[in-house]
Amino acid sequence: MRLLVVGGGGREHALAWKLARSPEVREVLCAPGNAGVAGEPKARCVPVADTDVDGLVRLALAERVDLVVVGPEAPLVSGLVDRLGERGVPAVGPNRLAARLEGSKAFAKELMARQGIPTAAFEVFERLDDALGHVRTSPGPWVVKADGLAAGKGVLLCHTRDEAEQALRRMLLEGAFGEAGRRVVIEELLEGEEASCIGLTDGERILLLASSQDHKRLGDGDRGPNTGGMGAYSPAPVLDAAAEREVRTRVFEPAVRGLAAAGCPFRGILYAGLMLGPRGPQVLEFNVRLGDPETQALLPRLRSDLAPALLAVARGDLRGVELDWDPRPAVCVVMAAAGYPGPVERGRPISGLERAAALADVAVFHAGTAREGDRVVTRGGRVLGVVGLGSDVRAAAVRAYQAVDVIHFEGAQVRRDIAHRALGRRA
Questions:
Q1: Helix ranges (DSSP H) in 237-305
Q2: Could you give the count of Cα atoms lying within 13 Å of 229 in the half-sphere of its Cβ?
Q3: pLDDT of 107-146, one tens digit each?
Q4: Residue 245 exposed, middle or buried by CB count within 10 Å (0-12, 13-18, 19+)
Q5: What whole-number distance in Å separates Cα of residue 23 and Cα of residue 32?
Q6: What pLDDT, on the 0 to 100 scale, is given for residue 287?
Q7: What is the distance of C-alpha 11 from the center of its chain?
Q8: Fewer Cβ within 10 Å of end Cβ, the chain: N or C?
Q9: Is the peptide bond between 225 and the residue preceding it cis, with omega within 30 degrees of 0?
């Protein structure tokens, strides 16, 4: 098979890395890819943006690819899978209508309410006065969410009424998130421990992947601003076998049934961001693709060939597909550029990559990188995801940080406590 992976971040490098190792795959194209993808055997980067739907369709047809694997959410919400389907190109990902599960938080919350999926109480508003009135008459704290896609920045945790009112004015009055913030969801702030559960679905059957836990805050101890993710590990002990069964029956199965009943059956990768607290698992959000950096922690643990499983999803028939997981935990540590999650400088040379990748039980996935001549340089906020495997979580974390410590670029930001919840649970 010839595959096309859409995207250019760490998730897409991990996908290309895994798919290129399949004996059934002849070549993996990646649009646009990054410096790490370009160095993978059987992989080739193509300079087509992941937001260029027309360009991606032309590329898939010109290269006669057998399967397209869509990494980020924006092309899914824009209808890339619909366009590819019209031209007979199989793709992993939901169509435009089903992708509203991530593209509209109001759509997702209303689906959860209809299907009885456990989630925070919520209200949806388009008028500022109505939203302010709700905050002034309801107990806090609150979460204020822009309805549409906001590059991971449209979710604001508000512990006081002043914070909530400021967030609402930013979205509904000042237009801080553009069209994405013209409608808002206000919901109660849930307490507990977060985890990620991801499943493959053909629109009827569901195959859950191993569990994982992301670290959103910039600094150690979960302090500082929210980011796209500063690290992840798998498995997440908080999501034990009993909790996983509950998530399957109370979250994934009703979500898939509800989307089918709504006339938009979901075929692709379904991600549930969960809060595990005294009320059991509750859904914080749905995504319609693999998580980042969760993917970087998951795929090094996957012993099975990923390519046939993804092809089965695209064909709509997961019968007989099973996945085998390495029992050893994996820890992914993100190395971010100076200034992240704000504006960052590009073009900082990166050293130590080959030395780190040569360590046993280590994988180095590129995210915001580019090649300039014979050098690899920084190109974005999250630069690298460094993964270690170990006999237990502590050993995996030690291995990941050993690799981190031989990689250097000016101003690198690294959390030193990835997997701290699992380590605390063991202690």
A1: 241-247, 253-261, 294-298
A2: 30
A3: 999 999 999 999 999 999 999 999 999 999 999 899 999 9
A4: exposed
A5: 24
A6: 97
A7: 8
A8: C
A9: no
What's the angle, vertex CA 42, arms to CA 231 and CA 313, rounded to 5?
Answer: 65
In a domain, 262, yes or no: yes
Report how far residue 51's alpha carbon sits from residue 396's, in angstroms, rounded to the nearest whole number.
35
List C-alpha distances in Å: 8 to 212, 345, 348, 380: 22, 18, 18, 11
Task: Express each pLDDT in 267-295 by its tens digit.
Answer: 999 999 999 998 899 999 999 999 999 99
Domains: count for the chain = 4
C-alpha closest to that of 370 among 392, 401, 402, 337: 337
pLDDT band at 425 (very low <50, low <70, confident <90, very high): confident
Same structural domain, 304 and 349? no
How does pLDDT run across 158-184, given as a tens digit for each residue? 999 999 999 999 999 999 999 999 999
**How much is the pTM?**
0.96
- The answer to whether the CB of 420 falls within 8 A of the CB of 213 is no
SS3 48: coil
Taking the mean position of all CA atoms in its chain, how far away is CA 358? Answer: 27
Tell me the residue range of the domain where 19 lies: 2-93
The CA–CA distances, whole Å, from 105 to 61, 70, 72, 110 equal 33, 20, 17, 9
**Is 116 among the domain residues?**
no
Quick check: 427 pLDDT over 80?
A: no
What is d(CA 210, CA 150) in angstroms, rounded to the nearest whole number?
28
